[in-house]
UniProtKB/TrEMBL annotation:
Pfam family, one: RibD_C
Domain Bacterial bifunctional deaminase-reductase C-terminal residues, every copy: 7-195
GO molecular function terms listed in the Swiss-Prot or TrEMBL record: 5-amino-6-(5-phosphoribosylamino)uracil reductase activity; DNA binding
Source organism per UniProt: Cellulomonas aerilata
Gene Ontology terms describing biological process: riboflavin biosynthetic process
Protein known as: DNA-binding protein
Lineage of the species this protein comes from: Bacteria, Bacillati, Actinomycetota, Actinomycetes, Micrococcales
Amino acid sequence: MSLTRIHNLSISLDGFATGEPQSAEAPFGHAGERLHEWMFATHFWALQGASGSGADAGGSSGVDHAFAERHSVGIGAEIMGAHKFGPPGWQDDPDWTGWWGPNPPFHSPTFVLTHRPRPAMPMEGGTTFHFLDAGPADALEAARAAADGRDVRIGGGPTVVRDFLAAGLVDHMHLVQVPIVLGRGVRLWDGLEALEEAYDIEAVSSPSGVTHLTFSRKTVP
Ligand SMILES: NC(=O)c1ccc[n+]([C@@H]2O[C@H](COP(=O)([O-])OP(=O)(O)OC[C@H]3O[C@@H](n4cnc5c(N)ncnc54)[C@H](OP(=O)(O)O)[C@@H]3O)[C@@H](O)[C@H]2O)c1
């Protein structure tokens, strides 16, 4: 059965997954790169830029790496929000193809939720961006159909993740709580309540200072 999964979603102690304002120069607003420094230090991240097997790419291979590398395992499609795909106003730029260059790191059909869809955009390396104006359930159905039996990742940002959680469509969520206080931005938790009733939740502290939280949907006895 194809699962709906979230990985490496990094939030501040006060629950923000991005700062503000977002722009082409500052995709995470005033948060800068602080939400993902834990990941940039890992072997998983070093491999993203490495050629060949990347065995000597460097980076840490401890707890943070072990969680981070689960991001791509068994994934057949991704769903992301319009604000992850580009800065405000990207819909007015016909040449905008996302932040990631000609070979984006998704390597699978990738569905961008937007109220201003455009034709599908094939990229190098197996990523094709599809633009959808659809609710979470319909978007998930389209992504599952494209995922060839594998799992679907909800890639963020927080608005889209929150909508999928609220709709009860998430089977597994890996959050990374980073010990910073952002004070403003887009908060993951607003409007959600009592998630702990639907999920088994575990926490693992990393020596790097972040806390990995896993939410696994409770099975009905
Ligand atoms: N902390 C992390 O690990 C992490 C991970 C991923 C992304 N991010 C960051 O999060 C930020 C983006 O998050 P965000 O919460 O601002 O926005 P988002 O979730 O990426 O996108 C929300 C937008 O997507 C469109 N959308 C959402 N649902 C839709 C639907 N059902 N139908 C049609 N359109 C829909 C709407 O845009 P329109 O109305 O404009 O079309 C909506 O405003 C970026 O800064 C990104 O870098 C952080």
